[in-house]
Fold this protein.
Amino acid sequence: MENSQKIQVLLPTAVDKPFSYSVPQGLSAELGDIVIVNFRSRLTIGVVWKLETESTYQGTLKEIESIVEGHRLPKESLDFIGWVARYTLNPLGMVLKMVLSGSSEKMGSEKKTRQSKLLVNNSPDFTLQGPKLSPDQAQAVNEILQSTETFQPFLLDGVTGSGKTEVYFDVIKEVLQQGKQVLVLLPEIALSSQWLERFYARFGEQPLQWHSGLSKSVKKQTWKMILDGKQAVVVGARSALFLPFANLGLIIVDEEHDISYKQDEQTYYHARDMAVVRAQISKIPIVLASATPSLETVVNVNQGRYKHLQLKSRYGGAHLPALQIVDMRQYAKSGKNWISPPLRQALSERLESGQQSILFLNRRGYAPLTLCHHCGHRFICLGCTSWLVHHKNSNKLQCHYCGYNQSAPTCCPACQAEDGLIACGPGVERIYDEVVECFPSARVLMVASDTLTTMTQMQEMVSQITNHEVDIVVGTQVLAKGYHFPMMTLIGVIDADLGLSGGDLRACERTYQLLHQVSGRAGREQLPGKVLLQTYNPTHPVIAALSSQAQEHFVECELAERQQQMMPPYGRLAAIIISGFKLDQVEKAAKALSRIAPRHPDLLVLGPVPAPLSLLRGRYRWRFLIKASKNFPLQSAIAHWVKQVPLVGNVKLVVDIDPYSFL
Ligand code: ADP
Ligand code: ZN
């Protein structure tokens, strides 16, 4: 009998290697083909990962069941999967799983799918014109278009309102006209109804969307269109990066500094960084846009790897809002209010002149901590190391890590005192109450991620504010992103210090970015904007940099400090998190790993120690932090190291390359 074709098939599960199969006579498999195989007595889909030209395997191989017609992953997708797995140390199969996540797991089975609504992907209307670009903008567009056939990252840098979006819309139009596909990554797709409306106005057609809220059938159709190389713009959250683009011509990462690009669960990766790799594989340009670029990106610009495109001023001469520090130490004695007299004054002026204001506090709920002032009892989550946050609207105490909640008690469970429970510190609900009390006639809206969950609710919120049905908005960072409200002229930051403490490597950078971004919501049109920052720490470098609008100086200082300590972007970090339901097993595994930790002058292994969040969803957690010099082969050292310790019970070990969370 003739030798049948042998292939290696990668399965979308937690495996690191493909499995060998043979192809039945009469069929012929190609690299990237999606196939149905029998694996551990179950039919499952997989991808042809390798064609075995010379197999040494002598036994009889199981045959694949079938090849799914018209579903061949492009070579670029396969290369990308391999690259991501090697870099992030995620199992190869788990990266494949992200690529296949739209392909519907029932694919290939005989089951009839319900008749579902067809997704239409009309061609955009290329006759629609955008605004005439300023010289800065036009130059940026030209520079990008000069590289459409090569890999080139760009930093598109300009304050909010400087016209970055108009620049990349023009570039998108050109690339689309070449018949190619464009990927636009946004931090949170649900937050971008304004972006979608702008896109529609500009292109006369909706882009394809990609996020967790889509129905299976829409996902499946979108996935197939991308695979078939249809000319299209896909806009999505980080997972859109794993779509099997057959014809990708451009990637845009808007708000590239946003930390929601880092996925910190299941499969750990940073979508911005991996997007750059994706562009490199396809030899196309990638545009990273931001008003407050990440230090990683700044260093890439400084070292000549990324081209810097700068838009110097707000479009049409709108001014950046004036920023005023409110030194809260002055008002510490003047009662229990969270809104200081100057901020209250500014709010009432806006109300009188019919303008709008935002009060910003990046904390959901009513109070972050409830305690009994008789016995000191604090409410904590039994499954996590965290305080329960009081939500007054639902009258519940909630854990913000695992979602556990209980109804708010009226007496202390420890000492039974009836009147002892006090709320410590403010959340947005508490600020809302204070605003309503101070300004009974004002129309006040509260905006937080737990009260706004659907796209429709988001749109409703945006139109309420835009139509001026609201005077004062009290909100969390949901509000900070990209919105454009013409009548918004005052931003009050309730607690500018929140986020500065905690010893997180990026705490300052992140606070700066967030506060800068929030400030950008004010004065976007003719009316001048104003920002009041309440702080107990007015001389802190972040606060000082914000108030003097000395972004460059701040970035320089931060970079100098990182360089001195050999922290990213000058050095490299990785974390290892060991978790399990039994503390002794976790501790034992951590210590076993510690005993055989790699030793090298370019490598420093810190830990193991119990994680700051030492209990999460009932799992005990220990951490290592590994610090290495820039050129040290960190991944291979870690991969080799962790392989040597067998894990018992349900102990789990994850590696987080370039960690952003240290909890
Ligand atoms: P960014 O993305 O940098 O925040 P946008 O692209 O959203 O800035 O531009 C801010 C506002 O200015 C938008 O309303 C936009 O339509 C307008 N705008 C930008 N560039 C131009 C231009 N060249 N002509 C007219 N309006 C412009
Ligand atoms: Zn919890």
Remarks:
- Residues 105-115 have pLDDT under 50 and may be disordered.
- Residues 271 and 483 are 22 Å apart (CA to CA).
- The radius of gyration is 27 Å.
